[in-house]
Amino acid sequence: MTNLSKLLRDSSNGHYGPIRVTFYYFLFGLAWIFFTLFLKNFINEEQDPYVVTLLVNRLVFIALGSFFLYWLLKKVAILPSINNHRLTPFSLACAHAMLCLVWMVFVRIFAHFAIDDYELRIHFIFLSVVILVGFISSCIFLFLCSVQNWVDLNKNGSQTFTFRSSPYRIMLAFLAVTVAVPITSYVVIELMAPQIEKSTYADLEITARIRASQLDGWLAEREHSTASTLQSDGFIHDVRKLEQGGGSRFVREAIEGRLESLMVAQQYQTMILFNAGDRILMSVGKKPENMISVLNGIGKARNKSYEQLSLQDKKRHDFIVPLYSPKDRQYLGSVYVELDGEAYLSAYLNHWTTATTDRRTLLAEKSGRDYYLFRMSQSRDDGHFEVERNLITGNSLGIALEKNGNSPGMLKGRTLENEVALAAWYPVKGTNWFAITKIDYKTLMAPMRNMAFFFNFAIVTILMIFGIILLFIWYVMQRSQTVAMDLREKQLLNNFYTLPFIGMGILSISMNKWLHFNDKMCEIFGYTREEFDRMGWHELVGLPCEEEQTGINALKEGISDEFCEEKSLHRKNGDDAITEVHFRLVTKEDGTPDYLVVTVEDITERKRAEAEVFRLSQLYAALSHCNQAIVHSHTELELFEQICYGIVHYSDRRFNMAWVGLVNPETNKVDMVASHGVSLDLIEPFRNMRIVTGFDNLDKDGPAALAIRQNQPVWIQNVDEDAHLVPWMDLLKKMRIRSIAAFPLYQGGKAIGILKVYSSDINAYDEQSQNLLVEMTGDINFALENFEREEIRQRTQAELEESENSYKRLYMERMQAEDEIRRLNQLYAALSQCNQSIIRCKNEEELFGQICADIVEYGQMNLVWVGLVDRKTQDIVPAASAGEHRDYLNGLYINTLPDDPAGQGPAGQVIRENRPVWMQDFLHEPSMEHWQEHIAHFNWLSSAILPIHKKGHVIGAIFLYSNHLNAFTESSQRLLLELMEDIDFALQHFEKEEQLQLAAQVFSQSSEAIMLLDSCSNIVMINRAFTHITGYSEEEALGKNPRMLASGQHDREFYSTMWESIEKEGRWQGEIWNRRKNGSIYPEWLLVQTMRDSQNEVTHYIGTFTDLTERKETEERVQWLAHFDPLTGLPNRTLLHIRSNLAISLAHRRHEPLALMFLDLDNFKNVNDSLGHGIGDELLKQFAERLKNAVRDQDTISRLGGDEFVLILPGTDTDGAAYLAERILNIAAQQYNVERHEINLTVSIGIAIYPTDGMDFDTLWRSADAAMYRAKQNGRNDYCFFTTEMQARSSRTLQIDNALRRAMEREQFSLVYQPQLSLKNDRIVGFEALIRWKHPQFGNIPPDEFIPIAESNGQIIPIGEWVLRTAVSQLKTWQDRGYRDFTVSVNLSAVQFRHPRLPELVMNILEEAGVEPGYLQLELTEGVAMENPLAAIAVIDELHKRGIRISIDDFGTGYSSLTYLKRFNVYSLKIDRSFVRDLPADSEDMAIVTAVISLANSLGMRTVAEGVETREQLEFLHSKGCTEIQGYHLSRPLIVEKVEEFLGAYMQKETETP
Q1: In whole angstroms, what is the distance from residue 342 CA to residue 347 CA?
Q2: Are 922 and 943 in contact (CB under 8 A)?
Q3: Secondary structure (3-state) at 1324
Q4: pLDDT (tens digit, 9 = 90+) per residue, 1197-1214?
Q5: Residue 715 pLDDT more than 80?
Q6: Using CB atoms within 10 A as the burial measure, which of 163, 227, 711, 1288 is most buried?
Q7: CA-CA distance, 482 to 1460, in Å (whole number)?
Q8: Is 1376 helix (H, G, I), strand (E, B) or coil?
Q9: Tens digits of per-residue pLDDT, 329-384?
Q10: 593: which strand partners?
């Protein structure tokens, strides 16, 4: 490192040598190469951006490299010229850029035409950059070495610079060898690529064939396994029982369960069981898309074995398994099986993707004319792998598959992920699938590419290192030659000391002895050689100052190489001389100081000349500043201040002060108005100084007064010798003034002031200074004359401008008057045109549009629009517009509400106050501040808003905009107001016209028939309803008497009474029967009224009537629906009450028994859910018909609603009721055929007997209902009689039911909280909120007793909401008290979970309490979640999106589907206490708990164990990885007051336990 630093430290003057420049450039090149390698990792190499990035990278390298080389070359001491062309850093940097560009173009062209492989091309380009950096570094080194040698050999500047060709030839040879190595290797790889591809294609084809064979074998094996299961004796036995009709529901459930298990295990999507008659007995899964094709296949499968069918049909997507009796080979039916391709592929593709790493096996499917590719992809939601189906029809792979058909094939091209790959495929027998094996071309060629890259990189590196060594040897040899020449030159330097141009000498280190000196040194000091030789340095120049001593010491100590100073000397004859002295230290070979070389140059004359030049330059600078001030000053005072500043500032302090004073004619004084250089304490005496002109004694006047009177400058070179200055001598001494000059200032030929300059030197005003100051004074006087002339010019110009303005004002007033007349004429034309439009227009919309257009066209407005008030929103809505910039209305929002910013503008004011608003300066109108951004884009200057009235109320406004200021004069306003009155009148006229048209439409369109009679009772007018009801047309009815409608059902007295009422009261109304034209009789409601004139004479009769036929029919229908069920035609609940009470009364009088049956269809909800409500309704009708046929005529059958029926059986005892119940069970179990559906149904029956089980209908009904529920509990499809035990239970249920309805309002509910402990950090992480009910009469009622009752009577919804609100509110209270590290869990019932607004309810409660959703957990049981899994997934996902955690409670007690469980966004699984109770003694419980914990961990869920009561249970759960526990071992459920005590005690325990 020491040698390297010496080589890099080329010179002491900051110049860089060859090694340093080359080393820095090479480091820059290496840094850029490594940066390129780093950048390569962040760019997709398969896309065009990578090529663009490489190009940009090269261009940036060229630019930065050229700039860096330019900066390095700027550090080189000197650059030579070649053929009279000077080499500069900029020209060499440009040459570097051109070389790099040529190299880059050459490499790119060669790589493009010689190397086809993209990766090889990239590697070659990268190596070319390495070679380029080495080549340019070598060129720089050789060039700078040549320059350095030239400099060393050309110190006298006589030689020209020339290149030596031999080093460059050697370097080019090395370059050719270096470039040839990667070119050769990459060409070899390019030639070997086809052979590698051929070998790879063979491997891929074999792999694809193996995969296709595996898939075919797996499908065949799965198909055979399914056939074996379906043809087993047990399954065929169950099918035979089902076919014969003797099988119970257990047989059906067994067959269905077996089919479902096969469908899940073997990934099937459809399984259909057909009987021997090709009728469907059972269907599991999805319905086939082509059912006709399935039925055809089933028909062909008859009397054929499975093996025969398998040989005939090679398809693997679906197959048929015939079923035969094992004994007599009787054909029982067959099973159609269809494969679930997506589920099957999910398992199989997952196996493929994990089997290989360097290659990938895919599966393609042909669907119609399209091809799809199946592959496994990882889900973003849960991280699991799932099948992804992608369309590849337009892809190169899809095109190749379509071209080859069902034949195997190979491909090189871009596949689904747009990567270049080699692929081979093989079709799967019996399917439209293709097994595809592919390998990325990049991965295939990577080993060979990497080997070639590292080989080339190593060879290039070795060659570059070898070249660097050779260059270094050449450099050392060149430097040795240069050093030898320097030694020869040093011998010639000794002769330099005899030269007469400069004093030179060699001084001892002690500086008291001269070792050698020349004659010029003696001449400078004025001594002879003998005298000079006897004197030391300090004797000649005196003792050194501190700075000189420091510099000489630094020189002796080796800190610096040279010391230079200017020194004043005293010659022998006493004269002073200024010299420039240089000291240089010469050291011995061991580095110790040897002697000092001293050179002394006499610079006395040069210094004097420099001082004189500097003085004159300062004077001319002051004169220049004066001229600049004259040019740029706008006032006399500004000019005076700049003149004073320039004289003092630019004289190099030769002149200390300068000031200007003006003569005051009133006081006959010179008042100082500007100064510079006067200290603050002397300004006031200057102002008080009296310089009198005129009659004062001249002997007492100063230089300023003399200069003014004598009209010439006054020069005082020494103030002590001038008698005029005696009165001011003290002040002048205080100011240290030795010389004074005064110059009079003139304006208009009259002296107006004085310029006075002070100096602290005697004789300060030499000839040059006097000439310059006089010239400056002349310039000032010229400027003062200009100021006077400018003032006269400005005064004259102001008078001219005032005269011109007066003329313009008169002209503008005339033009404004003409404009006003023109605007009025335009408004009169607009008013006339608008009145014509009012006459022509038929409605408001047409009127508003025409008015806007007329005002714009004739009134010369830029925009006019009409806005009407929306009475609901109070918004002003545009109704019509005309003119330019109508897009102004887009996004414009205004209303009439005074509290809304949009209603506080002028439009809202016009509507509210019913008065016009005139805005003469629209853009600056304060009330338009809210709309400034909106109106800023338009050039309107005036605006007006006028209200529009209808019926005396303001309904809107008309808006007018003009691009003229003050466009609305008083005359214009009067005309516009007159126009608004005409518009209001037109609107009133339109309303009357609308009322007349409305009346005509009412008469014509009325649904009531109307006829108008004249005074003779003849029909003169009818409407369409009259024709519709009676059938008589207008031609047939006009002129006829209404008697033609008489039905004959009313006598003469009826009509007499009617006309008598009409004549007396003027009206009659009532129901009457009339006859239509077709002869049919119908009822109608008739109203007859009279019309009288001013003399009270009847002129007309008006008759209106309504057809009552439909109303009569509706009343009859309503009467029937009030007592019968509309679906089945059976009596409903109302008629049931009537008949049952009658039957009970008869039984009571006759002392006979009576039976009441309550029937409920089993699982009827499944029929509605699966087949639809239409099928369910038809099924209820058929069941009702069977019931009607099974009972007597005196029995009553009633449908209460849904699937519930009640039978009243008079005279029926227990035996009769049992017999009828058995019969009903049998007829109900018979098959139902509904729209080609074969449905089996069972019923549960509850029976109550009068008078044993009740004395009235309500009691008997409740008893039968309780018995019916007991029958359902016993397994359904059964009947049960009511017992006393049921009565007691029913009574208890009724009591709890009644008490529940009042428990909330009486505040009988409370919550307790059971803590949950984390086994990971031993912290309390949550509490479960548990409801408790303490009844004053029944005591503590357990939740498992009242929760089911609450769910049945609907009370669970308000109770659940109360629990949720109370728990969340309490959680907020704890959080406010600092407890924020735990959550609260709340249980949800099935009814709550099915509520459609559950997520909104929960979020509203959280927002009201101010609790974040993450602190709340909702628990639902396993059975609730699996009741409707798809709906549960939707609700859980919605809650999860809102941040609420979900837990599955009592996990393991239900029947969870793992398929659905993995789709639930569940936070935790709660292990039921029944599995924890016997831990760790019970091995089965241990296995179950371990499995649940493992399942939860694999699904990313937490586990919470319930009912932990012992330390052993806790340790076992902890060892198995259970997350949390709760139970009596930790704490019993706590009331609110005890929770904080528990938390405090537990936190204290945590702090005490290390």
Answers
A1: 9
A2: yes
A3: strand
A4: 999 888 899 999 999 998
A5: yes
A6: 227
A7: 90
A8: helix
A9: 788 888 888 887 666 666 566 655 443 445 677 778 777 777 777 766 665 555 56
A10: 587
According to DSSP, the residues that pair with 1505 across neighbouring strands are 1471, 1525
Q: Which two tokens stand for residue 440?
A: 């990325």
Q: What is the CA radius of gyration of the chain?
A: 59
Laid out side by side, the sheet with 750-759 consists of 669-676, 657-664, 750-759, 739-747, 714-716
Phi, psi of 925 (to 5 degrees): -70, 120
Q: How far apart are CA 536 and CA 327, in angstroms?
A: 145
Q: Answer whether 398's CB lies under 8 Å from 392's CB.
A: yes
Q: What is the pLDDT of residue 319?
A: 80
pLDDT at 392 over 70: yes
Listed residue (57, 55, 35, 20) closest to 137, CA to CA: 20
Mapping DSSP onto H, E and C, the string for 1258-1322 reads: HHHHHHHHHHHHHHHHCCCCCEEECCHHHHHHHHHHHHHHHHHHHHCCCCCEEEEEEEEEECCCC
The neighbouring-strand residues paired with 285 are: 270
pLDDT at 1527: 92
The torsion defined by the Cα of 904, 906, 911 and 914, in degrees rounded to 10, comes to 130
Do residues 916 and 946 lie in contact, with contact meaning Cβ atoms separated by under 8 Å? yes
Cα distances (Å, whole numbers) of residue 1511 to 960, 1528, 1530, 1550: 89, 11, 10, 18
**What is the C-alpha to C-alpha distance for residues 1313 and 1315, in angstroms, rounded to an integer?**
6
| Cross-strand pairs, 1316 | 1326
Beta strand 1524-1525 with 1502-1505 is parallel
Rounded CA-CA distance 493/486 in Å is 11
The whole-model pTM stands at 0.33
- Token readout for 645 is 């500043």
Token output for 515: 């070792």
- Six-digit token pair at 286? 């999805």
For the four alpha carbons of 1024, 1026, 1031 and 1036, in that order, the dihedral sign comes to negative
Q: Is 896 left (phi over 0), alpha (psi -120 to 50) or beta?
A: alpha
Q: Token match 């259970």: residue? A: 1522
Tens-place pLDDT, residues 1388-1440: 887 788 788 888 988 999 999 899 998 999 988 876 777 677 777 888 888 88
User: What span, in angstroms and rounded, lies between the C-alpha atoms of 1297 and 1335?
Assistant: 12
Q: Any idea what DSSP says for residue 1124?
A: B
**The pair of three-digit structure tokens given for residue 334, joined into one six-digit string:** 């067959």
Within a 13 Å sphere around the CA of 552, how many CA atoms are in the beta-carbon half? 20
Q: What is the DSSP string of 1221-1269?
A: HHHHHHHHHS-EEETTEEE---EEEEEEEETTS-SSHHHHHHHHHHHHH
Residue-wise pLDDT for 287-336, tens only, equals 887 787 878 887 777 778 777 777 766 666 778 888 888 777 788 888 88
Q: Which two tokens stand for residue 1136?
A: 């049931």
* 454, pLDDT greater than 70: no
Residue 1543's nearest CA partner among 1357, 1332, 1325 is 1325
